[in-house]
């Protein structure tokens, strides 16, 4: 059976919101824009998948692995027009 996940985002004030998964609540103000949180979510999801794959296949990741995501906003309609992702793995 597939895992099921749910989150709830709540607008709490000017440029402020909170997000909860029912266990943990994260609050944000003007320091992180929603588009940056989207990029952070994508980066962490990719990195989590890579690390999980390595662990399941006894692949040692000696050193620091990282994922950087960068995006461009477009207008009409306002949306992420482009997202670039860079995965950096430690050398074997």
From TrEMBL:
Pfam families, per database record: OsmC (PF02566)
InterPro entries named among the record's database cross-references: KH_dom-like_a/b, OsmC/Ohr_fam, OsmC/Ohrsf
Source organism, top-level taxon: Bacteria
Protein name as annotated: OsmC-like protein
